[in-house]
Amino acid sequence: MDIPYTVEVRRDTGLTNGKIGIWLFLASEVMLFGALFASYILIRTGAPSWPRGDTILNVPLATFNTIVLISSSVTMVMAWASLMRRRFGTYRIYMGGTILLGFVFLVVKYFEYSHKFHDGLYPSTSNFFAIYFTLTGLHMLHVFGGMLVNAYFWGPGAKLWKTNPVWFTNRVENSGLFWHFVDLVWIFLFPTLYLL
Amino acid sequence: MTSDHAADIDRHVRVYITVFVALMALTIITVAVSYLHLPLPIAVTVALLVATVKGSLVACYFMHLISEKKLIYAVLVLTAVFFAALLALPAVTHSDGYWIHE
Fold first, then answer.
1. Domain check: are B11 and B35 in the same one?
2. Nearest-CA distance from A8 to chain B in Å?
3. Is the pTM of this model over 0.90?
4. Looking at the complex, does the CB of residue B24 fall below 8 Å from at least one CB of chain A?
């Protein structure tokens, strides 16, 4: 049986089912990260003292990663725009770039984490590191998840382009919405954890 | 694909590039301000203000929220209400100290 409303929009919602689905999922994600942000505020305001992030974390590396993630959002939206222009080759380049930038983000994070572990700094070290590793770790999982989906649409999933280009374009748009959300979360995590 | 449609996408792409430049500039501002070592309440306000502007740019243009259907706005308004309640919880506990009574 075909999945309904993948290409044509439902008359009552004005949307494809995939689009409303991804937004409902993102709404639940807002609450997931929101709960952790609220925990962070509670732990920080309740602590007798709290270190400034830039005294123990690597700000230049995190700034570099912020630029990487923002750039990946641009390549992601350009990948979708390429499909809208019916340029599949260009789509593949931009989508490949998005995956690569996600990979760069994870590699930088790996170096950051291993440096901390080398210095004997673990989630159990302090409340600061507990919330730092929880928030950035969960965010990293999201980057990894988004990369998997994007890799599928770059590779085997792209076969759909030949049979149903509009459906494929919609799928890439939805995967992009998730990717931009991951970027958006980092935009708040970066100053909160590293700079304040 | 009609030529109108192509022109529409071209216009979108120009907006994406502009937003990208703005996001880069705002990232530099965020980091530069942190080197000023402002008092914490001011630093928090500035950092969150800049982050909100950056986040809004991503949401409005990359996620196309500037021109979305009503149902998605409705979902997001509901989410915003619950999100605000979630963030308000620490404020409530902090102000009367009851839940974190020592």
1. yes
2. 15
3. yes
4. yes
